[in-house]
Design a protein that fits this description.
It is built from 15 helices and 13 strands. Helices cover about 40% and strands about 15% of the residues. The model has no long low-confidence stretch (mean pLDDT about 95). The strands form 2 sheets. It has a 7-stranded mixed sheet, sandwiched between helices. The two termini are about 30 Å apart. By secondary structure, it is of the alpha/beta class.
């Protein structure tokens, strides 16, 4: 069985063509692919890869084995990898032992030097971190899930500590000091095993600064619960957060949907009054929207549901969004940014917002104010030599205000291979 699975995996490995080595192959690296995470890897290694062959390791391969071996696997999730069921825990050990036996044979037939993954929480990959250490094959984590609000930070930190989460692989690369603090405070890993490398893919956004944008608006459709703790509350038991201070003031009914509806209303009016202005609404893949909201739109509004959204920054002049990494990428691209701030300011809600260090001109405080500022940005001349937004948030969240992260990520990989 192991031999057959080995051949099957080898057959399903594929070279990452964008980052083929410039010189003779010295190392082989298996990458458990993730769309956004791999963008950082590609951005860095396009420039610096000399002798590493990167191959995609299909994540579904592990998922199938995991679900076959683990009894009651439904109770184990990315957010909750703990069980009181002795049969489930016995199955986890069986899965771990299976991976050890399998990779011992796989390495003989297809030698490689390193694993790269992008999140230590993926349920089917957790045991692989431990197995890699036992087999003395480094497992590097390029962790990107660190653009979070203070509320998310508090809930996630509490959850990880209570569930005694640990990364059992070799080393973690994070974007920023904030991200390192995020993981080390929760004791996910020793701070000596966490390196700050910045966000490499931001180099693409920085390159857009030199491109004259069209008179175009992109609205990155607001996610209903972005920056809120709902995801954590749904995946844990009823009393799990009873000792968390933030939970006592948690309003389960609160979300950002009303802001989304108001922006759509404003954009429809703006599109009718400005038929020559192209407006794109980019929805988040996997997010559930009310599709009726996108019906009966003016001809100059287009909705895009598929694919990554950062490429749209290249041509757009004005970016609208909320609590999203794309706002940080828009800051790097030097685009005009307009965010909805229709809610009343208070300390509780402040915790639910990213701290972007933007100017008051970047916020619409009412529908009328939002429309007026949108019109001003569209009419405003774009200047290549003028920085439109503060870069403080780029350093805080992404560790890359100076566009120097590609070399840092390359150094992290080459010194740990």
């Amino acid at each position: 069985m192991y031999n057959l699975l080995t051949l099957l995996l080898i057959f399903n490995l594929s070279k990452i063509k964008e980052i083929l080595p410039k010189n003779k192959i010295k190392y082989k690296v298996l990458v458990l692919t993730k769309s956004v995470g791999i963008d950082d890897l590609i951005s860095s290694q396009k420039k610096y890869n000399k002798n590493i062959l990167y191959l995609t390791f299909p994540r579904y391969f592990l998922k199938i084995i995991f679900e076959t071996i683990i009894q009651n696997h439904q109770e184990l999730t990315d957010e909750k990898y703990v069980s009181n069921n002795k049969y489930t825990n016995k199955s986890i050990k069986e899965y771990n032992n299976f991976l050890i036996s399998f990779f011992k044979i796989f390495i003989k037939k297809y030698p490689f030097d390193l694993f790269i993954g992008f999140n230590f929480l993926y349920v089917a990959e957790r045991e692989l971190h431990d197995v890699s250490e036992k087999l003395k094959i480094p497992f590097l984590l390029l962790f990107k899930e660190c653009v979070v609000t203070k509320t998310q930070f508090n809930y996630q930190n509490y959850t990880w500590k209570k569930n005694k989460e640990k990364f059992k692989g070799s080393k973690i690369a994070v974007y920023s000091k904030f991200a390192k603090q995020y993981l080390s405070r929760a004791k996910i890993a020793n701070k000596n095993n966490i390196d700050i490398v910045g966000c490499s893919r931001l180099a693409t956004s920085f390159s857009y600064k030199k491109i004259l944008p069209k008179n175009m608006i992109v609205y990155y459709a607001i996610e209903k619960y972005r920056g809120l703790p709902n995801r954590y509350c749904k995946t844990q038991s009823k009393n799990f957060f009873k000792n968390l201070k933030d939970y006592k003031s948690y309003d389960k009914k609160f979300n950002w949907e009303s802001s989304h509806i108001k922006i759509l209303k404003i954009l429809k009016t703006f599109a009718i009054n400005n038929p020559d202005i192209e407006i794109i609404i980019k929805t988040k893949t996997g997010e559930k929207y009310n599709q009726n909201d996108f019906k009966n739109l003016p001809d100059n509004i287009k909705v895009i549901h598929e694919g990554a959204g950062h490429a749209l920054l290249k041509e757009t002049k004005v970016v609208i969004g909320w609590n999203s990494t794309i706002i940080l990428e828009a800051i790097a691209a030097n685009r005009f940014i307009l965010l909805p701030y229709f809610h009343k300011v208070n300390k509780l809600l402040k915790k639910n917002e990213l701290d972007l260090k933007l100017n008051t001109r970047n916020y619409g405080y009412s529908e009328k104010d939002f429309y007026k500022k949108l019109q001003n940005f569209i009419e405003k001349k774009y200047c290549f030599n003028k920085t439109n937004n503060s870069h403080k948030s780029l350093e805080y969240y992404l560790g890359n205000s100076k566009n120097n992260s590609e070399a840092k990520l390359n150094k992290f990989i080459t010194k740990n291979i």
